[in-house]
Write a structure and sequence with these properties.
Elements lengths: L10 E3 H7 L5 H9 L3 E3 L2 E2 L6 E3 L4 H4 E3 L2 E2 L7 E6 L30 E2 L7 E8 L2 H8 L7 E7 L7 H6 L16 E6 L2 E6 L6 H8 L4 E9 L2 E2 L9 E3 L2 H7 L2
Parallel strand pairs: 9-13
Antiparallel strand pairs: 1-4, 2-3, 2-5, 5-6, 7-9, 7-15, 8-9, 10-12, 10-13, 11-12, 13-14
Helix pairs in contact: 1-2
Length: 249
């Protein structure tokens, strides 16, 4: 019986790789190579047109200006989104992308948030250039739950959990009822709400529909992935493949 041959790593031109990672234009990348600022396995690369194998350990083997190579695509980032920043390039104000290395704004494919948290909501945010993964997380057919901690303006009245779980609640201006959601009361004005949809300002609008107002909102979980308790607001790191799988577990 013959064993399965190992999958050969795809290859890409060095100048294209670095340009797509935001290190500069191909001409600027060629200048880095000419000045021996790009090394692989400790040796300076001399040909900007050299073909580089995209092995999983490439970021550990290659350096650019003395620093480890940024992770090639596909890349997914876990961030603790702080208050006061937005999730879109189109919105006014500082964006979550400004918390990442500046050159990452020139990466191709571009990085995008997986869903959005509004300016006044903190917590777990995923940012990726992996289109299929993004769509799998946000697709309604996968029913990936998102959990939020809400602090309310007024005490809960007691009937909210039953109403939210019934699957009959209609938001103002919409024609389709919400999918069932789970409400866990933590205190008179505190609750944990788990939803499987991502409608515009959904959590805030759900509490508004029962005559209440959200004064603070924080997302701490997407599927089986929890925001690490030690991660400070504004901090981020690369999401591992195991953590990506945990979302759908």
């Amino acid at each position: 019986m013959t064993g399965k041959a190992p999958t050969k790593a795809p290859q890409v031109r060095l100048d294209r790789l670095l340009a797509n990672l935001g290190y500069g234009s191909r001409r600027e990348v060629a200048a880095l190579v000419m000045h021996r600022q790009v090394e692989l396995d400790g040796a300076a690369l001399r040909d900007a047109g050299a073909r580089i194998a995209l092995t999983p350990d490439l970021s550990a083997r290659m350096t650019v200006v003395g620093q480890p190579l940024d992770p090639p695509a596909p890349l997914t980032i876990l961030m603790h989104k702080p208050l006061g920043v937005v999730c879109s390039h189109r919105e006014a104000g500082r964006s979550v992308y400004e918390l990442l290395p500046r050159r990452w704004q020139a990466r191709m494919p571009a990085l995008s948030t997986i869903g959005r948290l509004d300016k006044d909501t903190s917590g777990l945010l995923l940012i990726t250039d992996d289109g299929p993964f993004l769509h799998r997380v946000i697709s309604p057919k996968h029913h990936v739950p998102k959990r939020y901690l809400a602090t309310l303006d007024r005490p809960l009245e007691g009937g909210e959990a039953a109403l939210f779980s019934a699957g009959t609640l209609m938001l103002d201006g919409e024609t389709m009822p919400l999918a069932p959601a789970e409400l866990e009361v933590l205190g008179p004005k505190e609750a944990r709400l788990t939803i499987t949809e991502g409608r515009y300002h959904q959590v805030r609008r759900m509490f508004a529909a029962v005559g209440n107002h959200v004064v603070a909102l924080h997302r701490d979980r997407i599927g089986g992935l929890a925001l690490p308790p030690e991660m400070e607001p504004g901090a981020w790191r690369q999401l591992s493949l195991d953590e990506q799988a945990a979302i759908f577990a």
